[in-house]
């Protein structure tokens, strides 16, 4: 434990700015992954353990598309829609077979696919660490805020994620599609009786989750190194986020992601070896005091 | 469906004899290692099935007790130099105490929240092990080997004697758990799994029954950890990592959760898969993943469950014909 350096960090604006921005980066990437996870759980009642693999696929898609086109905008959209397509096919072919089945059976199917996706990535892109490199638009001198160094890409990442978060919220809360999806989460039989093809809708929700995870992967590609197991740790963290925020709540996912991001960065200053422990401790406290999470409702 | 204790003891004695004779028939170091690992994993998975299969409590954090057993036993042997049986009993006491404390908090929660809370506690223990370097050696684990002094003429540093000890522990552990699930307590536990509200109306203290099951599972899971720590002569943080819990769940799903020996069968299948697949292909994940899908989407249940259903269907198909 290193409380002295934590206190001295809070005393210096530069240190606070640096830690907050890196906390935001972690939080924003987590939010994109966790939002998809929580959406899929809320509507399909399936815990998608392969969600980390989608994040990984997004990052590797980004690697290839960026190498081919050199344009980061095309890369972002290509990776996101590529991953969404994988999600759609995956849901229609496999996940749709395990709806309503034992949660453990769903877990087992997903676990099988985690292993398969990891190995496929290993075969296609190799087992060694890969890195995409920073796109040229962002290769500019960092911005200084109160003495803290902030790379411009970080600002871009945070801005884009907030825009996506708002759009996602608007789509779910304000559009007809969102209304149908919410109805689907509440009573699928009724929705189907009203003449809506629920199968396609389930696929689309799953694809939307994949889209978000793939986008997160593409955003992470310039700042993270890519390995075939990279989905695992973000999967565990986004679980913590959804549990803390409440399963099925997008607002909860956002708040949870920010909290976890900040706990991680400030924890790494104050408790270098116990950062993960802090996260789990927080999760334990939330689960004991409010099992449904900060923004969650009781699941029937 | 009453199980007589005497029959169980006879079967247990036969099993021990067979396991002890096995290396004489087929002398191989690989076989001995395989059975010791199987004993450790089998006890662990069967204890987890007390919760999942019989109690309906899906724990994602059972690896906590595996790690705790390995670390408590290893530390007691390294630090105090007490005889092995004393360290073994103390380890059980530690596991029971920790399971009681954590269980009292966890078993109140339902389904998925129970699963996540157990996972959180396990990862909390894992973080403590990483953090507490002076005691646990941090991410290096308990190094320098665990002393295994001879007791009652038994020398567990000798691989063959460790083999026999593991087999005896496995069989006794399985018999005890068998006895537990066949007892009125076991039936009460299954009733709570099927309908907790009804059980409560009948005057059963649901919380207490679930808690006792949690403690018992923690104890037997810890014994699996003790065997593993004796086998590798150490304890490593990976023993307390969530992947151990995941492996336990996976074993149960492979072997089947509605038969008592399902997890044991699953443990053997997993070890065989590990050994065989890694020998023949470098694409371990791809192969194992495909096999998992075969079980999950093809058989749609564990192997023993599948065979049991198949047998019942076969009998049902035969029965009317005999009558007519």
Oligomer: heterodimer
Which architecture of chain A would the CATH scheme give at its second level?
Answer: Orthogonal Bundle
Q: What characterizes the major β-sheet of chain A?
A: 2 strands, antiparallel
Structural class of the helix and strand makeup of chain A? mainly alpha
With helices defined by DSSP (H or I, 4 residues minimum), what is the helix count of chain B? Answer: 14
Number of structural units classed as domains of chain A: 1
Q: What is the CATH T-level topology of chain A?
A: ABC transporter involved in vitamin B12 uptake, BtuC
Molecular shape of chain B = globular
Strand content of chain B: under 5%
Question: Unreliable segments of chain A (pLDDT under 50, ≥5 consecutive)?
Answer: none
Q: Overview of this structure, please?
A:
The complex is a heterodimer of chains A (300) and B (324). With 300 residues, chain A is mainly α. Chain A has a single domain (3-134, 144-289), classed as ABC transporter involved in vitamin B12 uptake, BtuC, CATH 1.10.3470. In chain A, 73% of the residues lie in helices and 2% in strands. Chain A has twelve helices and two strands. A two-stranded antiparallel ribbon of chain A has the order 1-2. The longest helix of chain A is centred in the N-terminal third of the chain and has 32 residues, at 13-44. Chain A is globular and about 60 Å long. In chain A, 50% of the residues are buried. Chain B has 324 residues and is mostly helical. Chain B has one domain (5-323). Chain B has 14 helices and no strands. Chain B has helices spanning 5-25, 29-54, 63-80, 84-106, 111-131, 133-136, 159-182, 184-194, 196-201, 206-232, 242-255, 262-280, 284-299, 303-323. In chain B, α4 runs antiparallel to α10 and α11 packs across α12. Chains A and B meet through α5, α10 and α12 of A and α5, α11 and α13 of B.
């Amino acid at each position: 434990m290193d409380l002295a350096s934590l206190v001295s960090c809070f005393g210096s604006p530069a240190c606070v700015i640096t830690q907050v921005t890196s906390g935001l980066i972690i939080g924003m990437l987590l939010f994109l992954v966790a939002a998809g996870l929580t959406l899929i759980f809320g509507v399909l009642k399936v815990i998608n353990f392969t969600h980390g693999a989608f994040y990984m696929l997004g990052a590797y898609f980004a690697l290839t598309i960026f190498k081919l086109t050199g344009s980061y905008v095309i890369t972002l959209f290509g990776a996101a829609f590529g991953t969404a397509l994988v999600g759609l096919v995956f849901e229609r072919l496999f996940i749709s077979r395990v709806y309503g089945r034992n949660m453990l059976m769903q877990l087992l199917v997903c676990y099988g696919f985690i292993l398969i996706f990891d190995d496929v990535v290993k075969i296609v892109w190799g087992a060694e660490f890969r890195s995409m490199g920073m796109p040229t638009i962002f290769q500019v001198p960092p911005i200084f805020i109160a003495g803290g160094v902030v790379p411009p890409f970080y600002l871009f990442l945070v801005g884009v994620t907030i825009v996506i978060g708002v759009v996602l919220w608007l789509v779910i809360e304000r559009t007809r599609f969102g209304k149908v999806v919410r109805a689907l989460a509440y009573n699928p039989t009724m929705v189907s009786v009203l003449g809506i093809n629920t199968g396609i809708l389930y696929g689309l929700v799953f694809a939307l989750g994949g889209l978000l995870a793939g986008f997160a992967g593409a955003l992470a590609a310039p700042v993270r190194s890519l390995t075939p197991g990279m989905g695992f740790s973000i999967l565990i963290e986004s679980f913590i986020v959804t549990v803390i925020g409440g399963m099925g709540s997008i607002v909860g996912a956002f708040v949870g992601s920010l909290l976890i991001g900040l706990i991680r960065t400030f924890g790494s200053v104050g408790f270098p070896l116990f950062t993960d422990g802090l996260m789990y401790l927080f999760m334990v406290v939330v689960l004991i005091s409010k099992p449904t999470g900060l923004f969650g409702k009781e699941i029937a | 469906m009453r199980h007589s204790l005497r029959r169980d003891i006879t079967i247990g004695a036969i099993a021990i004899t067979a396991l002890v004779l096995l290396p004489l028939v087929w002398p191989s170091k690989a076989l001995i290692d395989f059975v010791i690992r199987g004993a450790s994993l089998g006890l662990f998975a069967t204890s987890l099935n007390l919760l999942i299969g019989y109690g309906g409590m899906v724990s994602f954090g059972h690896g906590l007790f595996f790690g705790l057993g390995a670390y408590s036993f290893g530390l007691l042997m390294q630090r105090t130099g007490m005889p092995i049986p004393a360290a073994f009993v103390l380890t059980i006491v530690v596991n029971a105490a920790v399971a009681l404390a954590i269980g009292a908090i966890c078993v109140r929660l339902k389904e998925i929240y129970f699963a996540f809370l157990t996972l959180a506690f396990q990862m909390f223990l894992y973080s403590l092990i990483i953090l507490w370097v002076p005691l646990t050696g941090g991410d290096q684990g308990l190094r320098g080997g665990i002393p295994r002094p001879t007791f009652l003429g038994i020398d567990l540093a000798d691989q063959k004697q460790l083999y026999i000890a593991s087999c005896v522990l496995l069989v006794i552990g399985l018999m005890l758990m068998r006895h537990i699930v066949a007892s009125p307590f076991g039936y009460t536990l299954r009733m709570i799994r099927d309908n907790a509200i009804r059980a409560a109306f009948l005057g059963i203290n649901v919380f207490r029954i679930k808690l006792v099951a949690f403690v018992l599972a923690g104890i037997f899971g810890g014994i699996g950890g003790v065997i593993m720590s004796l086998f590798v002569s150490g304890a490593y943080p990976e023993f307390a990592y969530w992947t151990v819990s995941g492996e336990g769940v996976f074993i149960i799903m492979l072997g089947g959760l509605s038969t008592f020996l399902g997890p044991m069968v699953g443990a053997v299948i997993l070890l065989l898969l590990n050994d065989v697949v890694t020998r023949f292909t470098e694409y371990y994940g791809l192969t194992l993943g495909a096999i998992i899908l075969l079980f999950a989407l093809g058989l749609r249940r564990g192997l023993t469950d599948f065979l049991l259903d198949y047998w019942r269907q076969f009998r049902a198909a035969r029965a009317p014909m005999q009558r007519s």
